[in-house]
Design a protein that fits this description.
The protein is an all-alpha fold. The chain folds into 2 domains: 4-70, lambda repressor-like DNA-binding domains (434 Repressor (Amino-terminal Domain), Orthogonal Bundle); 75-109. The chain has helices at residues 4-18, 23-30, 34-41, 49-58, 63-70, 75-89, 93-109. The longest helix has 17 residues, at 93-109. It starts with a helix and ends with a helix.
Length: 110
Amino acid sequence: MRKVSEAFGETIRALRKNLGMTQERLAEACDRHPVFISELERGRRSPSLDTILRLSEALKVSPSDLMELAFPSDAERCELKKQIAALVAQQGADDLKRLLAIIKAYLEAR
């Protein structure tokens, strides 16, 4: 199984190359040493939160998109959960209690 740091590093490398950037240019844009970028891309180093934010800015992606690219989720399931959350967010307390009861009953019955 691929390590988390390797998956993240491969994503950084792919995004960097897609933008036509060298490791040196990315390092400069992130205020990091080129050796660190090299080690990061090979999965030998893990970034801090500050570095993730700097990388996302330099690579022109949001931090959340950077994480999703590195660690993709089930897109359809994620979209369904967003839709459900949006519908539920509009409901009052009484309706939320009813919905909870319905969901519990449904899950217990299957």
